[in-house]
Design brief:
heterodimer; A: 283 residues; mainly alpha; two-stranded antiparallel ribbon; 2 strands; B: mainly alpha; MetI-like fold
Chain lengths: 283, 255
Amino acid sequence: MTRHFNLFMVPALAVLAFVFAIPILLLFAVSFWSVKNFRLQPDFSFAAWQRFLTVYGDLTLYTLLVGLLVGLLCTALGFVFAYAARFKAGRFGDLLLVATLITLFGGYLVKIYAWKSILGADGLLNQALMWLGLTDEPLAFLIYSRGAVVVALVHFLLPFAILPIYASLRNVSEATIEAARDLGASGAQVITRIVIPQTLPGLFSAFAFCFLLAAGDYVTPMLLGGTSGSMLGQFVLLEFSTNFNWPAGSALSFGLLFACLVLIAALAALGGRMMRRPAGAVS
Amino acid sequence: MIWRVILGLFLLFMLGPIALVVVFSFGANALIGFPMGGFTLDWYGKLVADTGFHSAFWTSLSAAFSTAILATLTGMLAAIGLMKVTPGATRAVLAALALPVLLPPLVVAIAIVVLFVRGLGLGLGLPVVVLGHILVAQPFVILIVMARLARFDQATVDAARDLGATRLAAFRLVTLPQIASALVGAALVSAAISLDDFIIASFTIGGGNTISTFVWGKMRTTLDPSINAIATILLVLTVGLSALALKVSKYKGQV
């Protein structure tokens, strides 16, 4: 009675095909088209890809670095929070999870706007610093900087990291931890040798998701990044709207996507290797 | 003790900025800062009088409502279908359906625009927004409904069929009542996803506004204190819907 397909899946898959698969394939095809006199023409040209590599190479690298940093911060912080919620919070654990689920829907633009109000020249943080007498005039570098973008992105993506990590922490039994403790393992050893190895899949999916969303974001750098904090997503938008260069915008999108996937695949391979190697030391 | 401090700092970081916006939406001062001035409902009053906000509000609500109904339908059917196929096929189909959520929404949104404007020569507008939101919401519906179906006793359906119920009658009388709470939860989550979305809506709406594109317009131009009020309304809607969804469906975030 088990099969590979049935008719119930058709509506959902139809939406996937019509609103995602076909559009994405068309967008990819567009990256080889050309623009003449502001008119888009089907073509087979590598001009857009050349533009991506020559003009946007450095920016792509920087965007990947921001994604990497945000992904790592979210994964590390998400682990600490999920670990505390799972093992240290007792009966408040569920409440913390609900708080996380609620911040997940806290509004994407609302969060960015909140950081703008906190970090701005007449924002809350500057007011507090001046009131404390730590500075005489507002610190201008708090907003419109790379740091502001990273802080806001971590704030936005942290719930996305906490949930998969918490889900995998649920499978770590307290008995194993007790056993390790009884056999003389220190707190740090319990975490590095018992907890982390068992939650690696959760940690990895948390990182991958945060990395992808951070590297692909354009609203946060637009509002908080200023000129120094610009990311590639903004230029995808620029090429599509202001420059009316759809092929370039498309090449930028896919260039970023491929770069992200290569990086994730490399990290996955590295992680797989690390998991296999010192396993003997644990058991 | 140390863990309490750590968790407290986390909650401050996670909830603090959001709480700030809510608190200052009731403050008399135009900017976020202390002292915040007296308590006022002026910013909300301004919104009530703003026709631009009215149309954005109704557009968002109709997008959220349509997304909730349609994504729950496609997602529910897919979840039922997925329970009947091999585990390998389930994993493959789920991965495919989740892909739009994993890619940057900017890329997905632009791809939709390219197909509808250039590929099909159709215009943009609310129906396109809803299609985009269904695409993003349906994997979440599937997860929620499948979590419920996994605990579901198939024997009750078999019993109904043995007693002469048609497939449809067995579904309507036996399956549906048992998964109803999960469906309501899934519909609420879909509505919250639709309301919260900015990127897909901003590309596919064409003319007009949703609440989030309306906020965006204000954020880009002036420092308008009514942003705090709109943000609070949006927050109450999305957080309210998702909290209600959690309660109704008893979903605990299994992914």
